[in-house]
Automatic annotation (TrEMBL):
Name of the featured protein: Glutathione S-transferase
Coiled-coil regions listed: none
Segments forming domain GST N-terminal: 2-84
Residue span, GST C-terminal domain: 89-217
CDD domains: GST_C_family (cd00299), GST_N_family (cd00570)
Gene3D superfamilies: 1.20.1050.10, Glutaredoxin
InterPro entries per the UniProt record, alphabetical: Glutathione-S-Trfase_C-like, Glutathione-S-Trfase_C_sf, Glutathione_S-Trfase, Glutathione_S-Trfase_N, GST_C, GST_Omega/HSP26, Thioredoxin-like_sf
Superkingdom: Bacteria
Length: 217
């Protein structure tokens, strides 16, 4: 099987989404910012030719280049053998797609971009987190988690239906990071459904055990 490359850094939540799908389907892949032996600078000319807004991940597969994590995971699932991560039925596939896009566009933003990035890359005085920004954005992060919890209660142990799907792949990297936050910035407690879902996925899916690990690099 042809190897694909994920242009991303290992801690990127969206990069991990693509990585999870490769792991789950056992697609041979490499990941990083070195491509064919050359470092491709973040937001440099080559990266911007691949992604007009300079975002990660970008999938490189032979002479094919694909950006945007939702498109990437759908392509990986359609193109490669291994467990199918989307339903065949067009309506159910569209509903899964809807969930993937809600996760990518709103839930990831509320958790990662508007809340956790403020902790990881603090912009306050002397490199401290801006507590007013965190306080302001915390309700939206909690609302996002409540929505995930509602979906989990309606589905069969996964985020869409009763099997691991593209929705789980899209959600788990950012939900995993949410489980790692410590007081006073914590968003989930160990007895809540989201925390237990993440830990269950790590315990039952080797893909999740490998990808859902603390930030490295
Ligand atoms: N809509 C994009 C979002 C990707 C994204 O925001 N990636 C982050 C890393 S997790 C990034 O490249 N951030 C750099 C930036 O925004 O300048 C996708 O789904 O792939």
């Amino acid at each position: 099987m042809q190897k694909v490359h994920i242009y991303s850094v290992p801690f990127s939540s969206f990069g991990r989404v693509a990585q999870l799908v490769c792991e789950e389907k056992q697609i041979p892949y490499s990941m990083g910012t070195t491509v064919a032996g050359h470092e491709v600078p973040f937001k440099g000319e080559q990266h911007l030719a691949w992604h007009p807004y300079g975002k990660m991940p970008v999938l490189l597969s032979g002479d094919k280049v694909l950006c945007e994590s939702s498109s990437i995971i759908r392509y990986l699932d359609n193109q490669f053998p291994g467990p199918k991560l989307q339903p065949q039925d067009p309506w159910l596939a569209a509903k899964l797609d809807e969930r993937v896009l809600l996760l990518a566009n709103y839930i990831n933003h509320a958790l990662i971009r508007d809340y956790m990035l403020e902790l990881v890359f603090p912009k306050g005085p002397e490199g401290t987190p801006r507590l007013d920004v965190i306080e302001m954005n915390k309700p939206a992060a909690l609302d996002a988690l409540a929505l995930v919890e509602k979906w989990l209660s309606e589905e069969g142990g996964y985020l869409f239906g009763s099997e691991f799907s593209l929705a789980d792949a899209m959600a788990l990297p950012s939900l995993y990071y949410a489980t790692q936050l410590k007081t006073p910035f914590a968003l989930v407690s160990e007895d809540c459904a989201v925390y237990q879902y993440v830990m269950r996925m790590k315990a039952t899916h080797p893909s999740c055990a490998k990808v859902l690990v603390p930030k490295q690099g």
